[in-house]
Write a structure and sequence with these properties.
191 residues; alpha+beta; Jelly Rolls; eight-stranded antiparallel β-sheet; 4 helices; 11 strands; 37% strand; disordered N terminus
Amino acid sequence: MSLLPRRHGPPGPVALNDRTYVRLFFLSGTGLISHGACARYPSAAQDAQGRLAMTFQKTIAVSTSGHGDIHDLTDEVAGIVTGSGITTGTVHVFNVGSTGAIGTIEFEPGLGRDLPEILDKLIPPRRDYGHEEMWHDGNGHSHLQATWLGPSLTVPVTGGRIAVGRWQQIFLLECDIRPRNRTVVVTVSGE
């Protein structure tokens, strides 16, 4: 029995406004019962056990100044989690692009300087990277540094809040050699 109308093709997001998407998945003890999309949170749409699993997605736009520019995303991610209405689950933070990285750090000036410096020591700019030999664009090390750190992070959501430590903040690090306009996709999943 479907709780929402079935859609043709794979489940997909429904645009609520220019940057908000919501997808609902109704779960049972045996797995997915039905999927669908809605424009608001239903108060009565639940499975037989009364559970409602929800996914909420927004984007964060970040303009960077180039290599080593680090941005604290913690407050924006926390605001998206609060706005999602999800109290228990996870939030996934993903940088779109291959030369930016997402992680956690104690966001303070010393570490903001130390992280890019240590990455430049471990993976320094050089012309003999295969990427440089192919493209000659000066950012082979940028791709490698971003790959080393990774493009995403998943954080638990507990009591409607992100579960990070007092001195733990979510960051975006620009590894590219030039300024970029970054899109960070934040997806909150849970109940």
